Sequence to fold (443 residues):
Amino acid sequence: MSTKLWGGRFSKGTHKLVEEFTNSIHFDQKLAKYDVIGSLAHIDVLKKTKLLSGSEHSKIRSALNSILKTIENGTFKIDPSFEDIHSYIQHLVETKAGKAGLKLHTCRSRNDQVAFDVKAYTIDNLFVTQKLVDDLTISLGMLATKNRNIVLPGFTHLQHAIPIGLTQYLGAYVEMFNRDHVRLYNAAKNIRLTLGAGALAGTMIPSANYNLKKYKIQMNSIEATKNSLDAVSDRDFVIESLNALATTAMHMSRLAEDMILWASKEFDFIDIDDAFCTGSSLMPQKKNPDVLELVRGYTGRLYGNLINVLVMMKGLPLAYNRDMQLDKEPLFDSFEIVQKELAILAELFKNVTFKKDNIAKQLEDESLYATDISDYLVKNGVVFKEAHKIVGHLIQHKLKNNVEIKTMSDAELKVFHPKLTAKAMKHIINPNISVQSKKSVKK
Fold:
């Protein structure tokens, strides 16, 4: 039977509907490992300040370590009748350590406890996500290297623009994910992993005793809180993490959209491995990029999780309010979605095949080389605004009369400008020449 960490001043038990409405153990069980780690640190503080004897400390520590072992080996089971994971672990400690366990909650509040637990969980998962971002970046880099000689049409407004190398195209996404790597790292680095806030005003233990360098979550050591009110009421770290995850999801969504388009019959640039596609229950010929579509679709949910917490926090007075319990499910959900997406995309891009012949056909569109022709005229002394107008007229003539610029004679070309020659056009209208002529970026 569950026992609460509070209740002495109440004359009635909690109504069943209230129990069901306020219960959080069904989702905050994800914090079990961090709650135990925080408790191990807390009893060291209690021993240091002589609020626990050596024997009591040993009994509680043994109980906590046995609980931690079950969490790490996957045998940990919750009792859903408990209010939250903190109450349940307290109960387990009391069961294992006897009377000594009753002292675990000395100078402690769940307000401080949950802030520590969620921060520790967040730090760990930011680094897990960062590693998965790196895996996807590596996968994209390998795909680009494998297909380094491919040139394809570049697009603006989803219209043919200028030829571009595949390495540069995929490299754009690598740059996005590199920024995500830094963003995730900074979110983790910005988290102060504190103990000692109590409920909101601190505890009777001197702050120096809360500096516990031996307890680290990734790069973050436990330290004394500077401002106890802020320590229990801050959820900036949740918002910053959700923002970083939503931004990463946005980048994956854009990448997914490009691949969805490229896999369509209208583009037909790529083939996605069958293992990463699904079929139709009615139409036998279908091969659908469902994985990419779900990556694109989940982005809305990730944005919603960010907005959810921002709106929840916007009007809360200091310090802790029960509304803040609602930060966990969006946070857990966002980490799980983004981590799954990153993992599956890293595998998907190991199995993408480019259809070079189909890409080459689209590169025959001479309008792709209009800027290159303008650059040629500028190099030959024509001011850019005039060159832009000349080439615009040339493209208009081509489209209106259904002629190829490369087949036009010197006489036909000189109607537009004396510097335009058949030899020059044949040289310029070439995807590789077009890509090589761009000098402003490293290739």
